[in-house]
């Protein structure tokens, strides 16, 4: 029953985000820039879109591991599933909190008003808000034995951020523009400090994801022990009654 419930949840999550990804690539289009060279990177220049792809891939991989165990039921594969879910939860937490924090200060820096006519509110929340609870749920469903250690999670998450930072500079070198307006506003020293802060910020986000997972696993263990104790009490009462 427990496995069936978890599979139903995984099916719902992966189905929802496959549809979100399909909608994003099919119906969400950004205006083409007059200079073709300025279009370098396309949608893939945005961390939000890359995170959406990464989250959907992680959910799909976990779904296949659970429902199609043949050839996927090896320990290394399940370890990889745990790393993907943990990294996805960490990056999604960063995307959600960073986006809405900057949005609250000045939305034009991360989500200009012109995008309101391109990205509907529900889709905006699907890629900037619900990615956090969805990725956390997927991570919490990962067995404790398959979850990565904090050091492993930190290295993977930081590595992904470094790769994205390099990608931002590749886009700038090819187009002469920054992906996010906030980077254009900042001077060179402030920009370097901002990017470094974003990379270092993976530590608290990775710690938060790891802590939530640890507390959830501890709660599950305590709940299972409580159920066993209650069953033993019920059996003891039944024996006395006889």
From TrEMBL:
Pfam families: Far-17a_AIG1
Compartment(s): Endomembrane system
Transmembrane feature ranges: 12-30, 50-70, 82-105, 125-141, 153-172, 192-212
Organism: Macrostomum lignano
The protein, known as: Androgen-dependent TFPI-regulating protein
Keyword list, A-Z: Membrane, Transmembrane, Transmembrane helix
Main location group: membrane
UniProt catalytic activity: 9-(9Z-hexadecenoyloxy)-octadecanoate + H2O = (9Z)-hexadecenoate + 9-hydroxy-octadecanoate + H(+); 13-octadecanoyloxy-octadecanoate + H2O = 13-hydroxy-octadecanoate + octadecanoate + H(+); 9-octadecanoyloxy-octadecanoate + H2O = 9-hydroxy-octadecanoate + octadecanoate + H(+); 12-hexadecanoyloxy-octadecanoate + H2O = 12-hydroxyoctadecanoate + hexadecanoate + H(+)
GO cellular component: endomembrane system; membrane
Family: Belongs to the AIG1 family.
Membrane topology: Multi-pass membrane protein
